[in-house]
Design brief:
The chain is an alpha/beta fold and 243 residues long. 31% of the residues lie in helices and 22% in strands. The protein is built from 9 helices and 11 strands. It has helices spanning 32-40, 65-75, 85-89, 94-101, 129-139, 171-176, 189-197, 207-211, 214-225; strands spanning 11-14, 23-27, 45-48, 79-82, 105-109, 119-128, 148-150, 156-162, 181-184, 201-204, 230-233. 39% of the residues are buried.
């Protein structure tokens, strides 16, 4: 918990006071479909990456979608726990895992990244940027149409920096580290223009595609610790975007 950013809201989001947890549902975040899934599958608690409650609530209103989720969860005796920026930063968490998925070797933290989010590593073989884009799409189990790229598509890529989710603020750190490309999500237009002017390669794989990996990674880690609990992965595709 101490790894969480000060602005973040990790930990218990909803606590219905159950002392006996028999079934855990793991999901990237809470949506209505995920809540319904938890009810149908008789989960006692949902563990998510994205917090259900991010900003302070002044009331719980069933007419508001967050309030509706909370009411429905309490009515069905389901708790929620979230591990967000702490799981991005922790060893073995989201950023280490995406580095492994991209088959990087000699994975390490950025030396100039005070927040400890980003990782850097070396590809198994050098390739062009366009070939790396195809490689990343296959590794993340999605289509290249889901991606946005900045930079010379013919540039040779070997040293890769990564930050899952919304890591655009760290692109200059990646450049200073000597990365050939920086992989993240949520690049804004004006940021892209600056990256392009500085001739730096950045691959925006999208927030969802860089963080959907939370489910399988967290499942693997927690299953090693809790051998007497039924742990299940959410089947809901919660990507809000249709490409």
């Amino acid at each position: 918990p101490e790894l969480a950013e000060p602005w973040d809201n990790c930990g218990l989001q909803v606590n219905v006071g159950k002392n006996d947890i028999k079934k855990i549902l793991i999901a990237l975040e809470i949506t209505n479909d995920v809540v319904e899934e938890a009810i149908t599958r008789n989960a006692d608690i949902i563990i998510t990456h994205h917090p259900l409650i991010f900003e302070s609530l002044k009331c719980v209103d069933d007419n508001n979608f967050i309030g509706n989720y909370i009411c429905k969860l309490i009515q069905n005796n389901i708790s929620v726990y979230s591990c967000h920026t702490n799981f991005d930063k922790v060893d073995g968490g989201n950023n280490d895992y995406i580095a492994q998925i991209l088959e990087l070797s000699q994975i390490r933290h950025f030396s100039n990244n005070r927040n400890d989010f980003c990782r850097i590593g070396i590809l198994p073989k050098e390739m062009t940027f366009i070939d790396f884009i195809k490689f990343a799409a296959k590794a993340l189990n999605c289509d290249t149409s889901q991606f946005k790229a900045v930079g010379d598509l013919n540039k040779r890529i070997s040293l890769v920096g990564v930050c899952t989710g919304s890591g655009a603020e760290f692109w200059e750190d990646a450049k200073d580290e000597g990365c050939d490309v920086f992989v993240t999500g949520d690049i804004k237009y004006h940021q892209g223009q600056i990256m392009r002017e500085q001739q730096f390669c950045v691959l925006d794989c999208g927030h969802y595609h860089t963080e959907k990996i939370f489910n399988e990674n967290f499942f693997s880690l927690i299953s090693q610790k809790l051998t007497d609990v039924d742990i299940i992965l959410s089947d809901e595709d919660i990507n809000p975007f249709i490409i």
